[in-house]
Structure prediction request, 306 residues.
Amino acid sequence: MDPVVRYASSVVVVSVRSHALEACLGGVWIGDGVEPRIMGAINVSPESFYGRSVAVGDDDLLAAAERMVAAGASLIDVGAMSTAPYLRGEISPIEEADRLQRAVGLLARRMGVPVSADTSRAEPARAALAAGAEVINDATGLRADPGLADVVAQAGAGLIVTASPPRDVSPAGPPLATVSELLATGVQAATRAGVPAGAIAVDPGIGFFRGQDVAWPEWDCRILAGLGAVRAIGRPLCVGVSRKSFIGALAGCPDPADRLPGSLAATAAAVLAGAHLIRTHDVAETLQAVRVAWAIRRAGADGVCR
Prediction:
């Protein structure tokens, strides 16, 4: 029987299996029983919050991606517009599409691993998929552009659904309930459009929530501490904590360049709580943290977090 997950504002029904979660993103399998995979994050948007992640020129972009693949990345995620909620980096869909088409086209031909496009709009997604992207990573959970799910379904691509609040709206509910409801709604929208459930992962949106009732560093900590509860949605978990602002707030590091140790600590916590895919700017260091945390997790009763 499908479980009924009850939250404050609605009832969301999500079909889950009792134990194993798995999905295939661009040919890369993620899920229970498999060491968490690494997704390397590269930006071709000068507006991005972490300047060292930006590679605008073709040579720089290729070199950055090659380093990530050599260090163990299973996917490369390319962003062409900043999604940080505290930045106003929005560009036109045409400019974002042009950036993604160029970058994805360059990488998809040479990397040997799937390329993901970090976009929430249908037009840039269509351009990225035509250029060779195999996964769309939507930071708005399919809320920004209702047509995006159709584009993904028609292309037969993988999809990462990320929880985030509507822009300029503070989340009102408890962190885990709010995030879980947003993710469940996004997954339902994707499957209604024809995206197979087995091609969908979910991301709890660390760094995207700036609530008034719960301070944002505490919000992110609560989500990471309770990450296992998000398994009730029934999809594998992608988590991105790399150099994010909650780490800076907790550790007193205003510069993202100084946040690698905190990023690795948060990554280990995410893996121990059940994460299946880790998005990071620092592939080699993150892979080492993931392998140690994964070994500890497997040393538990059955290696499955509940």
The first helix runs from residue 58 to 71.
